[in-house]
């Protein structure tokens, strides 16, 4: 039970590890995850440490594995994850692993290079095949083969008309389909319209050998005359990254070339298939073991990184490490060191030596899958100080309960519980799937919190008798209309009276109208009452004040256990007692008179009950002569005046007396209250033996306030000789006192959010029902059934989106604030730092090593 209420007791230990056994010992410590290593070389550069070369080799192996993993994912091959946790390889096995990874990387790179060259060749042949086909089609479209010669006369100079006709030249190639319009305009402008362009799209997309992307291209052929235009056309093609291919001029040569290209393409396709099959076999073999390789390499890297935190003995035969570890796990750590020594084959055992230190240890709260979510809620506010009382066990109950007070609905609570039960019952399968969605991971981590919130919401929904804004009538109402007298008919109410009147008033003062309270929760008749909101306002507001005061009083009471554990009597007598008396005298009294009013006044005398708000205000003003404010009980003015005086008297104790006592103690400890005259003790101070004990306690207290300073450091000695600063201590106590006294008022008012959020949730649920479901329920025909089915879908979506997710998140955040501000500030300092053990589990899950 102590592990749950307080953090684990920690100790600083020194490890003496033999050089040949250090690797295996750190490996075993990483498997159990119970020690946090301290860096003993803070001033040494990371590149100058002993095992930096081993760390670099591990990083290089990790890089090669990431390359292989990338290739596996690119090939759409599933990586086998059997959940195996392999042992850490020995240092001598690093050479074999490096050779294996080097061979695998080189083989894959060689395959990729060859495959890229083959694909590039295949692409060129494919493009040439399309060019030959399209070019032949261009020439076949000519009606007369001599049309080219006749066309050349159009492009000739007029002075050369009488000369023999010249044949036009042409170039053919492939260009990206999206570049065709720009390419055509550029040709027209640069060549001034003296070229003739024909182009056709290639139907099937082609594969880019470099990026493996699918690209769409077009075949083009350009006719021109003269070498000048030929050079211009080639430069334009080069600028637009068009690929030019040689194309024979005669149909027979083109036909022969096409046949040769097709034969080469078939041969190349066969070689490509064999290359791809070989690549798939290599990657599939690697996919079976790559996870195991990753684990081994990252474990090795973590071990060498940890060894760099150690000091090396002058004899170079021993490594010295300092670790924080729980006292309860010292035996497990000893066994781990023994296993590591035996595994390494060393004959010299490793030594674990506990050290005495004044430094504040890290905070370690042991958790399981159920309590970890609630511990994270507490740690989000601040890590608890060492051995400070842990609020997480109480948060397990109070957090979902306060949430449910704001989210009280039976139907919504059932839906939330079912969703959380699904996550809880299938948690093993969901963990194995390793979903990377951040939102899902956050919800899954808090599945037990959501489960308890849903269960408590079911309970408060039963108390509120609210299920999707409707009441459930299981036991019959506690109200009856039979004895009600109607002056209009001169007798009791009848069915005609009920049917003919929209609003009727039930008077509980008439005998027989109110038969008795509902067995559990709120009477269902309030759901149709016109003054339902007024009744629930009063009920939920008082309930919020009661729960808030009890919660705060409980928080102040927990501070007593901290003071007792740390042996601080001043904080008990001048801190806890005045605080608890101040709150109980004012706000505890308010809770008592709320219950007193509920019990003392019946239905007949309820109109005579005084207002609690007016009575509470008059209590602070000492105003008891107001004729409109009648006393609740006899002797109320005397008791209330006494309570206010007691509460006001507590303020000087926290504000002034505590500061004076601290100053008195400081002076007493400094001068030790003794002076020796001839061996005779003079004064009222402690004896010399007691003075030594006081000095030791003072050193311990100051080292607790300044954990990072050694007792032998000059800074500590300077503080020891420093005079007590009365002004600073007075200001500190004044701030704390004012904050506490005003906080009691503001925090009590802050708990009214329980009332506000509860009413808001109920009203939103009622509005959603009346504006959506009532439309579907208005018709009783078959068409109305179809309409109801459609409307129910919208109702379900809006219920989940607004009332479950949005309202649930709002209630969650408000419950979080009530615990952080109103509850934990009463006793929780939260100034510690978290225990971060060296564990392979967190490293393999991707969490930060630091």
Q: Could you characterize the architecture of this molecule?
A:
Helix 17 runs antiparallel to helix 18. Among the domains are: 1-43 and 308-364 and 836-850, ACT domain (Alpha-Beta Plaits); 372-476 and 758-833, no CATH class; 569-676 and 693-746, no CATH class. It is α+β, with helices and mostly antiparallel strands. The radius of gyration is 43 Å and the shape is flat.
Quick structural summary:
It is built from 26 helices and 15 strands. The strands form five sheets. Strands 1, 2, 9, 10 and 11 form a five-stranded antiparallel β-sheet that branches. It has a four-stranded antiparallel β-sheet with strand order 4-7-3-8, sandwiched between helices.
Blueprint of the fold:
Layout: H1 2-5, E1 10-18, H2 19-32, E2 36-37, H3 52-74, H4 94-140, H5 147-155, E3 169-176, H6 180-190, E4 196-201, E5 206-207, E6 214-215, E7 217-224, H7 227-239, E8 243-245, H8 251-307, E9 311-312, E10 318-326, H9 330-344, E11 351-355, H10 372-381, H11 392-406, H12 410-425, H13 427-433, H14 438-445, H15 447-464, E12 485-486, E13 491-492, H16 495-500, H17 532-565, H18 569-600, H19 612-621, H20 636-671, E14 675-677, E15 680-682, H21 688-705, H22 714-721, H23 726-750, H24 753-777, H25 782-823, H26 840-844
Antiparallel strand pairs: 1-10, 1-11, 2-10, 3-7, 3-8, 4-7, 5-6, 9-10, 12-13, 14-15
Helix pairs in contact: 2-8, 2-9, 3-4, 3-8, 4-8, 6-7, 10-11, 11-15, 11-24, 11-25, 12-15, 17-18, 17-23, 17-24, 18-20, 18-23, 20-23, 24-25
């Amino acid at each position: 039970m102590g592990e749950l209420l307080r953090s684990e007791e920690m100790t600083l230990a020194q490890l003496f590890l033999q050089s040949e056994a250090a690797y295996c010992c750190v490996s075993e410590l990483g498997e159990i995850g119970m020690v946090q290593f301290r860096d003993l070389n803070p001033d040494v550069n990371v590149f100058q440490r002993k095992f930096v070369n081993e760390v670099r080799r591990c990083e290089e192996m990790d890089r090669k594995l990431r390359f292989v993993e990338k290739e596996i994912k690119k090939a759409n091959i599933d990586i086998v994850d059997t959940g195996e946790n392999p042992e850490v390889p020995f240092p001598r096995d690093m050479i074999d692993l490096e050779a294996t990874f080097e061979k695998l990387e080189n083989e894959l790179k060689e395959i990729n290079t060859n495959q890229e060259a083959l694909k590039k060749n295949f692409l060129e042949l494919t493009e040439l095949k399309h060019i030959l086909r399209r070019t032949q089609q261009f020439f076949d479209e000519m009606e007369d083969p001599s049309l080219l010669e006749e066309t050349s006369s159009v492009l000739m100079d007029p002075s050369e008309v009488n000369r023999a006709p010249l044949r036009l030249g042409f170039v053919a190639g492939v260009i990206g389909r999206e570049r065709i319009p720009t390419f055509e305009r550029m040709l027209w402008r640069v060549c001034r319209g003296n070229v003739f362009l024909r182009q056709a799209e290639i139907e099937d997309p082609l594969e880019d050998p470099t990026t493996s992307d699918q690209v769409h291209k077009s075949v083009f052929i350009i006719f021109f005359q003269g070498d000048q235009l030929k050079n211009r056309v080639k430069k334009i093609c080069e600028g637009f990254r068009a690929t030019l291919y040689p194309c024979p001029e005669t149909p027979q040569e083109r036909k022969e070339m096409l046949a040769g290209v097709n034969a080469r393409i078939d041969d190349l396709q066969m070689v490509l298939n064999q290359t791809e099959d070989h690549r798939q076999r290599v990657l599939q073999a690697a996919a079976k073991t790559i996870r195991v390789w990753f684990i081994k390499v990252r474990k090795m890297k973590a071990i060498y990184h940890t060894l760099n935190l150690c000091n090396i003995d002058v004899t170079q035969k021993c490594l010295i490490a300092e670790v924080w570890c729980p006292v309860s796990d010292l035996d497990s750590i000893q066994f781990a060191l023994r296993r590591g020594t035996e595994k390494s084959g060393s004959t010299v055992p490793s030594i674990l030596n506990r050290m005495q230190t004044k430094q504040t240890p890290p905070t370690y709260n042991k958790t399981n899958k159920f309590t970890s979510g609630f511990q994270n809620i507490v740690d989000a506010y601040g890590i608890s100080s060492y051995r400070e009382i842990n609020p997480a066990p109480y948060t397990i109950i109070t957090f979902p309960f306060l949430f449910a007070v704001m989210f009280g609905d039976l139907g919504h609570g059932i839906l939330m519980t079912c969703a959380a039960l699904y996550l809880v019952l299938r948690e093993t399968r969901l963990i194995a799937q390793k979903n990377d969605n951040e939102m899902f991971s956050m919800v899954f981590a808090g599945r037990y919190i959501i489960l308890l919130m849903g269960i408590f919401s079911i309970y408060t929904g039963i108390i509120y008798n609210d299920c999707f804004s409707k009441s459930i009538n299981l036991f019959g109402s506690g109200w009856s209309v039979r004895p009600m007298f109607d002056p209009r008919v001169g007798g009791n109410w009848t069915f005609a009276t009920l049917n003919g009147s929209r609003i009727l008033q039930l008077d509980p003062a008439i005998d027989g109208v109110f038969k008795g309270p509902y067995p559990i929760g709120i009477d269902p008749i309030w759901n149709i009452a016109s003054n339902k909101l007024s009744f629930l306002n009063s009920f939920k507001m008082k309930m919020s004040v009661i729960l808030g005061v009890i919660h705060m009083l409980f928080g102040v009471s927990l501070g007593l256990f901290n003071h007792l554990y740390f042996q601080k009597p001043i904080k008990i007598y001048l801190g806890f007692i005045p605080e608890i008396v101040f709150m109980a005298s004012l706000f505890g009294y308010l809770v008592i008179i709320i219950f007193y009013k509920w019990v003392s006044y019946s239905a007949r005398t309820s109109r005579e009950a005084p207002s609690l708000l007016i009575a509470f205000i008059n209590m602070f003003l000492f105003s008891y002569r107001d004729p409109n404010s009648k006393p609740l009980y006899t002797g109320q003015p005397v008791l209330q005046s006494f309570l206010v005086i007691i509460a006001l008297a507590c303020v000087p104790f926290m504000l002034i007396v505590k500061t004076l006592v601290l100053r008195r103690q400081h002076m007493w400890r400094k001068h030790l209250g003794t002076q020796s005259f001839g061996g005779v003790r003079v004064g009222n101070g402690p004896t010399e033996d007691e003075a030594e004990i006081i000095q030791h306690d003072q050193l311990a207290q100051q080292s607790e306030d300044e954990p990072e300073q050694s007792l032998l450091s000059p800074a500590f000695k300077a503080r020891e000789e420093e005079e007590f600063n009365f002004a600073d201590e007075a200001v500190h106590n004044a701030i704390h006192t004012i904050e506490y006294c005003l906080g009691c008022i503001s925090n009590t008012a802050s708990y009214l959010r329980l009332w506000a959020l509860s009413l808001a949730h109920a009203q939103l649920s009622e509005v959603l029902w009346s504006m959506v479901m009532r439309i579907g329920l208005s018709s009783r025909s078959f068409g109305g059934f179809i309409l109801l089915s459609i409307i129910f879908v919208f109702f379900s979506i809006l219920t989940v989106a607004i009332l479950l997710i949005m309202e649930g998140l709002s209630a969650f955040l408000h419950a979080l604030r009530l615990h952080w501000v109103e509850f934990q500030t009463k006793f929780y300092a939260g100034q510690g730092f978290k225990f971060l053990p060296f564990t392979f589990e967190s490293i393999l899950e991707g969490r930060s090593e630091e």
